[in-house]
Amino acid sequence: MAGVQVVAGDAREVIEWGRRLGKELEAGDVICLFGELGSGKTTFSQGIAAGLGVAGPVTSPTFALIKVYQGRLPFYHADLYRLEDPAQLEDLGLEEFIYGDGVFVVEWAGRLGKYAPVDFLEVRFEYLPDPQNGRQIALLPHGRRYRELVGKLEGEARDADHRD
Questions:
Q1: Distance from the Cα of residue 72 to its chain's centroid
Q2: Which terminus of the chain is more exposed, N or C, with fewer CB under 10 A?
């Protein structure tokens, strides 16, 4: 599975990469975020929201599990960190968000279990060995739609490398 990796030195760069992705997203897209606590998942989600034209603050839905925002498309933002029982996912009507008319972004996506879609964009956040240098963001496509999407972002990553 080919993907693209970028380095984000600070929160501003994490937001910018999320914004770039958000500008390219379409109805029905699913973005699954993975990474340690504090690695940039919510910050990246804020960037996606900005790219979708969501006005106002986007905060972690840790306690609500899912928050809904309106931009050029509905933005469904889930955080499953505090999920205590996978049965809670059934109560949320998760399929409605995953297969809905908006963009579904889920933090701690490994907890989706049987609800995980076949096609999605996997985004992994890893701290670099020297935390002062930020983090690495890997965009890994699952399915044709996401291979095309990553191809567009790969060109932007190359352009960004050449500007440095």
A1: 17
A2: C
